Structures are given as structure tokens and as C-alpha cells.
Amino acid sequence: MKQRTLAIVKPDGVSRNLVGTVLSRLEAEGLRIVAMKMIRMTKDQAKGFYKIHEGKPFFESVTDFMSSGPCVVLVLEGEDAIQRYRTLMGATDYTKAEEGTIRRAFATDIEKNVVHGSDSKETARFEIGYFFNALEVMG
Length: 139
Ligand code: CMP
Prior knowledge:
This protein is of the alpha+beta class. It has 7 helices and 4 strands. The radius of gyration is 14 Å and the shape is globular.
């Protein structure tokens, strides 16, 4: 089934010049970029994005980190895009991520894990709408 998913190159990925590396990996996997921009979230915008994690021990820290510098946000499209991109990223905890994944190759801790990806159809819908309006996503 053709799907769309939201991808982010996080502030650590942008500051370490890993944007091109991440984009080439996902294009090589056959995922299509149908929207893309660079943004810098405020703390409140990061809290809104991660609201499903509100109350968790890492909530303050991850929202500080995500608002600490620019991110590249993208919409990816393809067959089974949500799971394919998650496979490409690897586990949240990079020490548990498979060899060959983006996080295994580049993450430096559980928070500074270079990339984000939606984890379900419902979160993809919310997360895409959080950053992009209909005119910004190529049909
Ligand atoms: P992400 O996939 O963007 O979703 C939530 C983020 O919180 C996660 O990646 C990590 O960057 C960060 N995080 C920090 N600590 C944890 C943790 N213990 N479990 C899950 N996510 C964490």
C-alpha cells in the first residue's frame, strides 16, 4: 500500500553535515521525497510535536534538543513507506539498531539519534500535518 511518512533530520544530523547522507540513503531505498524544508522549532513547537511523550522522563530533554537548532523535515512516499523508513533508521536506541542502519552508523546517544520517523499511519497523518499544508506536499 502506498503510504506517506514524516521524516526529520534532527539538529545533530544537520550540525554534523549528515543531511545529504541521510537523503541519499532514503532515495537509494526508493523512497520519494514529496515535501522538504529546513525549520527551527521553538520549545513549544517541539512540545506540540512530541505531545504523545508528554510526562515521560525524556520529554523535557528531547524537546530542548529538538528546539536547539535547525532540522530538515520531509515527507516520504512509497509502498509501505512507514515501515521501510523505520527499517532504514534502525532502533531508537542506536546500540540496539541493526548494522547498516542510519542510527547504528551515526547516532551518538538515545536522544541524539540523527533521524526521526513516524511510527504508524495515525502518527504519520498528525506529523505531516504538523509541518506541511496540502500545497507543500507534491501530489
Ligand atoms: P524519536 O523517534 O524522535 O521519538 C522520541 C525521541 O525521544 C526519540 O527519538 C529519542 O530521540 C528521544 N529519547 C530520549 N530518550 C528516550 C527513551 N528512553 N526512549 C525513547 N526515546 C527517547
